[in-house]
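Troubleshooting: if your tokenizer reports a length mismatch, compare your output against this known-good record of 267 residues.
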Amino acid sequence: MNTVLKTLIAASLAAAFGMANAAGSASLTTGGYAENFDSMGTTSATPNGWSVFVGASGTDKYTWETAISADGVANMVAAGSALSVRTSNFSSTTTGNNGFNAFLPGNTADRLLATSPTSIAGTALQLTLQNDTGSSFSQLALSYDIYRFRTVSSAEVLPGYGLFYSLDGASWTNAAAFNPTAAQMPYNSTGATTMSGTLDLGASVAGGSTVYLRWSDDNGTPTSPDQAIGLNNLSISAMPVPEPESYAMLLAGLGLIGFAARRRKAA
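Known-good structure output:
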């Protein structure tokens, strides 16, 4: 993707992205976390916990032609200017400083957070999520829609959003199972692709600790302008780590089943 300033179809992150990045964390409770971005409306307020990052200065815009690297995501910096509010549908001619707040075609109430890559290395939509479930977890159940707003003349190098996660905000890991394929994100049509599954974080996240998620959009060739895509209808739920006594009960149960099976066989 190339040549237009990275467009973020979204509500303005307050007055500037620096303020947005200080907005704090969203809360993940026992009831989960859900966000459809409709609260953005035609104002400049985005949901708490969301911020926007761009490729570090000096990073070539074609760096992510074959893959979005974890190092590249880790080196991204907070976007340096405010988004503007947009109250008309996104079109192929839409350009601007950093972004817009747009709505789904035909429904001005249905908002979303989105990007349309340009002359920078890439853009990421970040959610900072605090564990307020009251217990530890090591996996998250995720579901969200990626919308395609604009068709382009040729296939994207890396279609859709590549999902990365971090437990410290410094080192990042790609959740490869959530990287859309070209078949899932066709370049020559508009519409929505639902991504869902289980994200294994590789470590236990204690209560009160934070998980960071970044939906990263590349800026490689060949298309210009890029296909505009957006994130919508996100839901997240924690999958608690079983307590030691739960393991013991499970093993005991399995033992009883095995014992009963052996008795039946012996009879």
